[in-house]
Amino acid sequence: MSTLPFPVSPVLREVGDYPFLRLDAEKQRVAATGVRLIDFGVGDPREPTDPMIREALAAGIRETMEYPKAVGLPELRDAIAAWIARRYGVTIDPATQVVPTLGAKEAVFSMAAVVVDPDAGRDLVLTTQPGYPVTVRGARFAGAEALALPLEESNGFLPDLDAVTPEQWRRTALVWVNYPNNPTGAVAPLAFYADLAERAAEHGFLIASDEAYSELYFDEPPASALQLPDLSRVAVVNTLSKRSSMTGYRSGFVAGSPELIALLKSFRPTVGTAPQEFVQRAAATAWSDERHVEEARERYRVKRAIMREALEAVGLRIAGSRATMYLWVAVPEGDTSEGFATRLIEHGIVVAPGGFLGPAGEGFVRFALVPTIDDCRTAAATIREVL
Ligand SMILES: Cc1ncc(COP(=O)(O)O)c(C=O)c1O
After folding, report:
1. HSE-up of 379 (CA within 13 Å, CB side)?
2. Helical packing angle, 134-141 and 104-115, nearest 10°
3. 242, 245, 369: residue to mutate for ligand 1 pocket, most atoms within 8 A of CB
């Protein structure tokens, strides 16, 4: 990038390409040799979006469509608040405590831009690792430093908050947590959020809880930071991408602290991230229905069982993986994440090396259970044959 005829952001130069772009290159290389790929790499559900939701989208297209407002349609904010009430037994005010987003990713990326304040000495963003890379990237582009909190299997893949020094807490603007967790599949009990909330009250930072996988569970429905008694320092991000197989629609929300939501309503019109109104109407339909979510959960349950059995049959160990669409698989002794992933892709099975999600992910690969049930059966047979 140094040879470009104009300056380049040093942060962009430093963070480089999004890691999953490397996986695309690897897929192209192997596909060119004639191997059929079954792709467990990226967590992009290849499930049909419920017809009712698609119809709501189509019905939302009008002859004239003006700029959408960043505050969002009242009907969508009401549907989200009603969903939160049903799911968590929590009442939030749809007028002041929720804002719709273009999916979770842009909200995760720009959260640091809204709260980091280097002049006030708040220039640190804490984020768990391995993890979704966007929290770190958002922090870096906002001029903050990102501090990785490693997720160790011995601690149930929860961060050790006692390891953060008083000096680091003083500098902390924002703490990201993500449960059910990508990539480990771990879930956090409400007591974890309560512990974090105590520290947030003591040190004055914002808790940002990315709950993108809250609906992909197979036993108890996971807890949410929205269940904390005081939401003044809480921002929960959620999305229809995984719950309703709607990655292509780009639809999510931030809910929680009225003060933070007011800041987002001030920030977001500048960025141009108000969701299209026809998407918001489809989203209102999606948040108002659970049947399609239960069906999707059942399909993931079947795929999990197929893959779990095959992986365990060849002696691989599955860590965490209580919820989400992921299986977090320890690589065999003496192998590296990338080495093992390369071995699998030569047989047509694409997985994400754990190291793509930060150095703490080394030693694992992640299977995203997004191929069809039939393709999972084919991949399971291959695993039994070649590993
Ligand atoms: C933890 C986490 N947060 C957010 C997202 C992005 O969600 P969305 O599609 O709503 O932007 C993902 C996508 O994989 C994710 O893994």
Report:
1. 30
2. 40
3. 242
Do 270 and 318 share a structural domain? Answer: no
Q: What is the pLDDT of residues 16-72, one digit of tens each?
A: 877 788 889 999 999 999 999 999 999 999 889 999 999 999 999 999 999 999 999
* Residue 178 counted as domain residue: yes
Q: Is 207 exposed, middle or buried (0-12, 13-18, 19+ CB in 10 A)?
A: buried
The Cα 24–Cα 41 span in angstroms is 9
Reading the block at residue 175, the tokens are 């703490």
Which of 42, 46, 49, 105 for a ligand 1 pocket mutation test, highest count of atoms within 8 Å of Cβ?
105
Same domain, 181 and 313: no
The verdict on pTM exceeding 0.70 is: yes
Same domain, 263 and 308: no
Pocket of ligand 1 (CB under 6 A): 43, 103-105, 108, 132, 178, 182, 210, 212, 239, 241, 247, 252
Give CA–CA dist 224/352, Å, rounded.
Answer: 27
Ligand 1: which atom is nearest the Cα of residue 132?
A: 1
User: Distance from the CA of 167 to the center of ligand 1, in angstroms?
Assistant: 31
